[in-house]
Specification:
CATH class of the largest domain: Alpha Beta
Bound molecules: coenzyme A
CATH topology of the largest domain: Peroxisomal Thiolase, Chain A, domain 1
Strand order of the largest sheet: 1-7-6-4-5
Distance between the termini: 30 Å
Number of domains: 2
Structural class: alpha/beta
Largest sheet: 5 strands, mixed
Length: 333
């Protein structure tokens, strides 16, 4: 049987401050009814100033290592849109704070698809023999780039981190990471973006247009693309695995919006009750969304060994990705 990466540990971490819909209503022109009806979100978590993405990543990474019973890995991948600094990557700091100095460590940025890109990268390093154990973390402090005056993005996004440990095994083991379907469409580059601060709009040379250093999203335009791309990607990865949606016990989609998750499930013909959702409690945590949802549903005892899990995400870039795996027996950190 061929060498493959196998998922052997999971963990997550949320910052302490809960921001309810009522907290947003107090400072923005919005209502609890609008947010709940249009997104399915009741609350989200914000890291207060002083707490950064690496702090959340270390919390999730430590929990995943404990769950795996590992004290060391040889590679750390941090998927994030909100690194501690533009340079260097956040992963080397996270590795060193976890006692993993010397490990290969780098960031991946595919916005809300970041965790699946990171998972595919980590699994590829193991399958190719360059690594034996990889810690893949999705971590975001999205509140640090939100425009406090934008009622739509403020209602949706939150902070958090989730992580998994992969180790070398074989493709027939539970937890084996098979083919990942990944894609992008840069024609939608402007639809989900922070305009200022990179090499195109240089903060040192020009003063950005007001608001250009904040995150923006063309929500309505993105909505249908998210549904379509995730549906197509799920079908592609199932076909490659010679599976149908009937074989899927749990659909774990990127927690962007409950209405998107519902339409995705309907499109694929998967009953909505088999579509994992923790969006009401945490909002959209971008690259952290999928491992957070997996950890929460695992903790709730719903996701059990032997269940077949279809993972899919869509995000800025535009990017998308999916994979399917059989859930392994895991201790929780
Ligand atoms: N409270 C009250 N009203 C709000 C609001 C808020 N928080 N946010 C937007 N609105 C208003 C808009 O101004 C608009 O008013 P108008 O009709 O007078 O112009 C109205 O609600 C409808 O806006 P629209 O943008 O069409 O809402 P929507 O139903 O599409 O929901 C999103 C907005 C962002 C929640 C939704 O489009 C979405 O989830 N998009 C995709 C997100 C995604 O998948 N991103 C990629 C991965 S992160």
């Amino acid at each position: 049987m061929s060498r493959s990466a196998v998922l052997v540990g999971i963990g997550s971490f949320l910052p302490p401050r809960v921001v309810s819909n009522a907290d947003l209503v107090a400072r923005l022109d919005t209502t609890d009814e609008w947010i709940w009806a249009r997104t399915g979100i009741a609350q989200r978590y914000y890291a207060d100033p002083g707490m950064a993405t690496s702090d959340l990543a270390v919390g999730a990474g430590a929990a995943a290592l404990k769950s795996a019973g590992e004290s060391t890995v040889d590679t750390v991948v941090v998927a994030t849109t909100t690194p501690d600094r533009p340079c260097p990557g956040t992963a080397p700091l996270v590795a060193s704070r976890l006692g993993l100095t010397g490990a290969a460590a780098f960031d991946v940025n595919a916005v809300c698809t970041g965790f699946l890109y990171g998972l595919a990268t980590g699994a590829g390093l193991i399958a190719g023999g360059s690594a034996d154990r990889v810690l893949v973390i999705g971590a975001e402090t999205f509140s640090s780039i939100l425009d406090p005056a934008d009622r739509t993005t403020s209602a949706i996004f939150g902070d958090g981190a989730g992580a998994v440990v992969l180790r070398a095994g074989t493709a027939d083991e539970p937890g084996a990471i098979g083919r990942c379907d990944l894609g992008s469409d840069g024609e939608g580059y402007d639809m989900i973006t922070v305009r200022a601060g990179g090499s195109r709009s240089r903060l040192a040379a020009t003063s950005p247009e007001p608001g250009d250093h904040y995150f923006t999203m063309a929500g309505r335009e993105v909505f249908w693309r998210a549904v379509q791309r995730m549906s197509d990607s799920c079908r592609a990865v199932l076909e490659q695995a010679k599976m149908t949606t009937e074989d899927v016990d749990w659909l774990v989609g990127h927690q962007a919006n409950q209405r998107i998750l519902n339409r995705l499930a309907d499109n694929l013909g998967i009953p909505r009750e088999r579509c994992v959702s923790n969006i009401a409690a945490v909002g959209n945590t971008a690259a952290a969304s999928i491992p957070l949802a997996l950890d929460h549903v695992c903790a709730a005892g719903l996701l059990r060994p032997g269940h077949r899990v279809l993972l899919t995400a869509f995000g800025g870039g535009l990017t998308w990705g999916s994979t399917v795996l059989t859930w392994p027996a895991l201790a929780r950190g």
